[in-house]
Amino acid sequence: MPNSLPVNASTAMSRVVYIVDDDELVRGALGSLLRSIDLEVCAFGSTEDFLAAPKAPGPSCLVLDVRLRGESGLAFQKSLVDNGRTHMPIIFITGHGDIAMTVKAMKAGAMDFLAKPFRDQDMIDAVIAALDSDAKRLDAERSLHDLRTCWEALTAREREVVQHVAAGLMNKQIAAEMGIAEITAKIHRGQAMRKMNSRSVAELVRKMEALGVLQAAH
């Protein structure tokens, strides 16, 4: 049976390591090692149990054995990629690794590939690097979500104005393009810049590029 998630793993700051290995002794040893550096650990004997378990919202990674009963670790990685579920960094472990297998795993997006027996420090280093990578991904996703919220707060007229701003037009030119008074264009521009938390046109353009909303600019 899969381990249940720790009570405090639901907080956004939890750093959780998921382990999938059909060897109970390996799961226990890895769990003890990673808990010794104050990480939350959830260990499973199969990929099915791992998929069925709830996932914590904070940074996480998966330590995955290559050779499992039934579906192999590499096949499971491929199924995650095929289904667009590639966000969680994967660290492969194996007692039968070879160069071809390592290359295949890394090309599919694995963070690391450790051959048994591996040094404890090598595992710790790989896990910390994977968790740091996932933390950066989550920060980027939150930033993009915040940007999208700001963009959605703009009125249709404000969005039209900032498209002209991004194209390099001055207030007078924007007013002429839109058939409005220059002071009105200036007001819309100021309100849009405030809503987008942008102190400069360059900053505004970078945010619009990140959102993919510059296609209407010309």
UniProtKB/TrEMBL annotation:
Annotated ranges, domain HTH luxR-type: 147-212
One Pfam family this sequence matches: Response_reg
Lineage: Bacteria, Pseudomonadati, Pseudomonadota, Betaproteobacteria, Burkholderiales
Alphabetical UniProt keywords: DNA-binding, Phosphoprotein, Transcription, Transcription regulation
Keyword S-adenosyl-L-methionine in annotation: no
Matching PANTHER family: DNA-BINDING TRANSCRIPTIONAL ACTIVATOR DEVR_DOSR (PTHR44688:SF16)
Entries under Gene3D superfamilies matching the protein: 3.40.50.2300, Winged helix-like DNA-binding domain superfamily/Winged helix DNA-binding domain
Residues covered by the Response regulatory domain: 16-131
Keyword DNA-binding recorded: yes
One GO BP: phosphorelay signal transduction system
4-aspartylphosphate: residues carrying this PTM: 65
Name of the protein: Response regulator protein TmoT
Organism field: Variovorax paradoxus
An example Gene Ontology molecular-function term: DNA binding
